């Protein structure tokens, strides 16, 4: 599951399922590679699907905990969209004190 086939990308739900398996196995390198190769960190539909699955998962279940962990991990990898031309990953504190930002070249 989560693999492409017949010249088409895997359905988004299958990609989430693949991420769940990779995350549960504890292989963060493969998780990051999968996210990057499929550009999922910047995919709004992917984030909406993750959130919907979290809300559908039972409170306190392992499934919900896994989905929330993946969501938090992915959110940490997303480019900062609130301030165009700024990068959240690089280390200059924003004016509002809401994290660290640095002007991109």
**Widest β-sheet, arrangement of strands:** 1-2
Global Rg? 15 Å
End-to-end distance, in Å? Answer: 39 Å
Count of DSSP strands: 2
Largest sheet: 2 strands, antiparallel
Query: What is the residue-mean pLDDT, rounded to a whole number?
Result: 77
Poorly predicted runs of 5 or more residues: 80-105
Order of helices and strands: HHHHEE
Q: Note the overall shape.
A: globular
Annotation field: number of helices: 4
The proportion of residues in beta strands is under 5%
Q: Roughly what percent helix?
A: 40-55%
Give me the secondary-structure category: mainly alpha
Strand-helix topology:
Blueprint: H1 12-24, H2 28-37, H3 44-56, H4 62-77, E1 86-87, E2 102-103
Antiparallel strand pairs: 1-2
Helix pairs in contact: 3-4
Architecture overview:
The chain is mostly helical. The protein has a domain at 12-79. It has 4 helices and 2 strands; from the N terminus they run ααααββ. The protein has helices at 12-24, 28-37, 44-56, 62-77; strands at 86-87, 102-103. It has a two-stranded antiparallel ribbon with strand order 1-2. Helix 3 runs antiparallel to helix 4. The radius of gyration is 15 Å and the shape is globular. The model is unreliable at 80-105 (pLDDT under 50).
Task: Please sum up the structure shown.
The protein is mainly alpha-helical and 105 residues long. It has helices at 12-24, 28-37, 44-56, 62-77; strands spanning 86-87, 102-103. The chain has a domain at 12-79.
């Amino acid at each position: 599951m989560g693999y492409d086939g017949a010249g088409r990308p895997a359905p988004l739900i299958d990609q989430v399922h693949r991420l769940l398996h990779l995350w549960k196995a504890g292989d963060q390198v493969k998780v990051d590679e999968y996210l990057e190769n499929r550009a999922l960190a910047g995919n709004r539909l992917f984030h909406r699907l993750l959130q919907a699955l979290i809300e559908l998962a039972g409170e306190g279940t392992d499934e919900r905990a896994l989905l929330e962990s993946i969501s938090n991990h992915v959110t940490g990898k997303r480019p900062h969209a609130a301030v165009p031309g700024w990068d959240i990953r690089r280390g200059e504190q924003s004016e509002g004190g809401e994290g660290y930002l640095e002007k991109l070249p």
